[in-house]
Design goal:
homodimer, six-stranded mixed β-sheet, about 40% helix, about 350 residues, 13 helices, six-stranded parallel β-sheet, DNA-binding
DNA sequence: GGTTACAGTTCTAACGTTAGAAGTTCTAAC
DNA sequence: GTTAGAACTTCTAACGTTAGAACTGTAACC
């Protein structure tokens, strides 16, 4: 008999109904109920109706834990990012949650920024947690370790690029986007461009790739270049932006544009420049990457390299699901298109004004 | 026998080790292994050492799914917010993830902004998902439904205040914080203050409480007040901020301060004001709520009412865990302190400048 | 009347963990 | 030498779901 007898509208079950309760109420076996739930053949219409009525009456919802144990699959993927309260990572998480829904996966967002241990746990696929796959934005972990661990965890990398062949990687063409940025500035009349960002110690990091593209474009376009205009840092935060801008201030008259490897760096830098009466964009144009929403509402509004996050998220899931389904091909790089969004901070120099 | 024989350093297990594998390797029973894992008495030192060695050799990690099924507890709580890419909600999520770790819970962030269905699923405790509790920031769902559903789901409400007695609620004293804002502006020499935010259709919403505090303080301090200076809207977004500021523009010369029910509203409003050559704070002071990081980097930087999110997160977990542990007391309101953070956007009017 | 085919249903073991019940071995006391 | 109890281990069922194997019943065909 069922554990709960409906004693009127006021009484409620204290525990969720199980498959067994449905089976007993409908007077059929467990298997028949599963067959109905999964819409399988070989169930008489009359039986099906009876089972469905029982499901409705008990408010039965299949326990995903039971299914998980049985199938070994959870349809949950983890998103491992340093901090969820960074604007770009929040936007990324949002896009991935939406894409996950389209692809039938729930996205569990985990913050790894606190310690290397957290990152390693993510790279190892969260042992014990029955996570189907990991979308991973590594920060500190040794690429070698990631390579080792990813062999047993379906994984897609975002954000930072580790050594080739580590795991699938989805990103824009960072080098090309930096060239586009420099060409845009040159076409707007900028001649002496500074660069902030890119940790030289991580040769294939995003900031480094952007730096390479920047340098190549500066050379190709015959623009002036000085080592003192190239500031390197390994965090792309607002604080780092202010710090770098302060280091640049003594030479600020030498330059007329500043390329920052992220919008946060740019936001920090602009704040410092404005505090020191440097006019943006009249004295110095500034441009960043990520196209975070806040950039639109700054004064001046911030020009930026935009990624189509929905597309990136879809490609990420395609790659990840293929790995979850057992694909053992060599790691692949998926490139998503980027776009320059020109706003006030990189307005062309005009004779008037 | 164990399913995997270690055939050398290159070979790796294809599936995670189970308790059973450990037991077989150590030559003991399942129960003995659990006893070791849980550090129980009645295990000989020698046996314990053997079991621990086996655990280490196999890299065994207990399956949380198995535990969940057995115990009915997952130690996972859901955080249901409209969108994770809103700065305040991202900061909130970060604080809750950190607090969850302190209290032994993982925080699963779910976005409910897309549809009422998503919100209802959250309010119902995510049936089937074995979630121990829900931290819930409702937006659209009928309070009545939340009340019904929350009776069977350990739940704490954040952000929007529903009808009294619905569920535990953690927030700042919104009314008092609005009074503090008005007093600060008055003390800084502002006389004619406008207000943006607060949906009059949701009587106990945050924006409404702030509005009440605002009106009371204006009256108490004998400040001028006109209905045309009070703009109501139900979304606290940047877009709403620009829209509301545009509606205010024709009367902008009448006012000298603008109180916005959120920093996003304020950011949108400031952008519009600056575009129309209204000087902030010289012509109009602006102040918001939430103290989002971006406010610090705007020019002018944004004054705001700050909540101690770490404290809020800790109180949230205390309340939620008490409910998870079976507390059936009437719903309670937990108040966390707030603080005015004065920045450039509400600088006092000074004769010079 | 017997065979075949298939629709519809039940039985059973399995996923990994847990803990109560039951069993075994050992020590110490009478 | 027996007994009590402690120390330690094994046995077993349970959590909720699933699917293959096995069973029953019916209809069609020769």
């Amino acid at each position: 008999m069922a554990p709960e007898v409906d004693a009127g509208a006021d009484s409620r079950p204290t525990r969720p109904a199980r498959l067994k309760d449905v089976a007993e109420l409908a007077g059929v076996s467990l298997k028949t109920v599963t067959n109905v739930v999964h819409e399988r053949r070989y169930v008489k219409d009359e039986t099906r109706a009876r089972v469905k009525a029982a499901i409705a009456e008990l408010g039965y919802t299949p326990s995903l834990v039971g299914r998980q144990l049985q199938s070994g699959r959870s349809n949950i993927v983890a998103l491992a990012v340093p901090r969820i309260d960074e604007p770009y990572l929040g936007a990324l998480a949002h896009a991935l949650i939406m894409a996950g829904e389209r692809h039938g996966y729930a996205v569990f967002t985990d913050e790894t920024g606190r310690s290397d241990d957290h990152e390693l746990r993510a790279a190892g696929g969260y042992p014990g947690h029955s996570i189907d796959g990991v979308i991973y934005s590594p920060l500190a972990v040794d690429p070698q370790r990631v390579t080792e661990l990813s062999r047993f965890t379906p994984m897609v990398l975002l954000g930072e690029h580790l050594s080739e062949g580590t795991a699938d990687y989805v990103a824009i063409d960072n080098e090309q986007s930096a060239r586009d940025v420099v060409r845009h500035l040159a076409e707007s009349g900028r001649q002496r461009i500074a660069y902030v960002g890119g940790n030289p110690n991580r040769p294939s990091s995003v900031g480094q790739l952007r730096f390479q593209g920047f340098c190549a474009a500066v050379k190709e376009l015959g623009l002036e270049s000085r080592d003192e205009w190239l500031l390197r840092c390994d965090r792309y935060s607002r604080e780092a932006g202010t710090a770098m801008a302060e280091r640049l201030l003594p030479r600020i008259d030498e330059i007329d544009a500043l390329v920052c490897a992220s919008d946060l760096l740019a936001i920090g830098a602009i704040r410092t420049l404005i505090e020191h009466q440097v006019r943006v964009p009249d004295d110095v144009a500034v441009i960043g990457w990520d196209n975070i929403i806040d950039g639109r509402y700054l004064s001046p509004s911030l020009s930026s390299v935009a990624t189509d996050l929905d597309l990136l998220a879809d490609k990420t899931f395609e790659a990840l699901i293929s790995r979850i389904d057992g694909n053992r091909d060599p790691a692949r790089i998926y490139t998503v298109p980027h776009q320059l969004v020109i706003r006030e901070s990189s307005r062309p120099i005009s004779p008037s004004r």
